[in-house]
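Researcher: Here's a chain I'd like modeled. Treat it as a single chain, no partners, no ligands.
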Amino acid sequence: MRIAIVSGKDEGPTKLNAFDNALSDAGIGDVNLIKVSSMLAGNAEIVELPKLKVGSMVNCVLSEITSDTFGEEITAVVAVAIGEELGCVVETTGKDKNPDELKKEAIEMVEYMMDRRGVKIKDLIVESSTTTVREIASVVASVVYVTDEIIDE
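Model: Modeled as a single isolated chain. Structure tokens:
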């Protein structure tokens, strides 16, 4: 199993446009995202996000938050823990919360999930995106499940 871990942020004239722009900033704006739960196959390989086929159906774990409150700081976080047997992904978001605290929260959650399953963590990766709202802003962080069918070669 191959995964890419991405994040993005942007503003827009509406909440939907801000979200779409943040997805584009993350490199996943021209595909159809299918939100899945948080499990990875063992020894998942982390890869750079390849060029994706426009309109393809792409499985992902997605953390996203959008706000139109001027001056508010918004953050989206994903944490990935990979073991030999399996891996887990968690996502969290916050408004006016310390981004480092949100990352710590995500790490604690994913460590708990792995411990609960009795799986030793080999790799732990945290990806986040934070911005301060000017008008309408959105941030995303995502784990994209990369398959040959979605790659535009």
